[in-house]
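Marked as duplicate of an earlier ticket. Keeping the data here for the record.
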Amino acid sequence: MKLPKTKEQIQIAVLAAMIGGGALFAGLRFGLNPLLKNIKKTRNQLNSVQGEIDKYKQTLKAAAQIEGQNTQATNEIVAISKAHIPEPMFDNYEIVIRELVKKYGKAAGIVIENVAQTDPRDLPARAPARAAGDRAAPPAARGGRGGRGAPTSAARAGAPKFRLYRASVQTRCSYAQLKKFIRLVEEENPYMSVSSITAAGQATGFHQHRVDLILAWTIWVRQNGLAEFLSEQEKTGEPSEGASP
């Protein structure tokens, strides 16, 4: 390659180099700009996708925590039911309650003269949770025309699960024995209560009193209430039809 010798040749060479450099710069700028814009767009899309993934992870974490809390609550209800809620024998609660009362009486040193079922009490229904501003459902939505027909799932959720089984108990004892009897009853089963106590003095014995009590036990509304409750919990955990696994 021959080097330029004259001044004109040098100027022409410098000018050609400047033109070539400018063309190269322009080519790089206009050629790379779309590519850089695409890279920036792709990066933004990736950041958006990563944000959605993070939100999904948080949702899964919250769902797992709720499921764990629900499982814990269910286990506690099952344990309480088995330990403190009487179950009927041959579809009869009175047999079971009579044996329980006699056991408490024996431990307190008193003789139970009579145990009889009295009027049961229904616990108040729990209204299903409703978002603020929502209006009450019309009668047809609560189960057929005029409120008749099968109850909706919301109505079943708000229906009481438990009721009070009440028994009338008669005995003769001293105040000390009565106090011990009540303490034994309430300490062994925190889900039962003494609804009323009536004591009357006896002419035959200064320390003996005729005592009438009303004892109340918490029982399931339906005799197979625990099994139904567990079945409802299993259905609640199942995915709805058409939902993604």
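See parent ticket for discussion. DSSP finds five helices and five strands in the chain.
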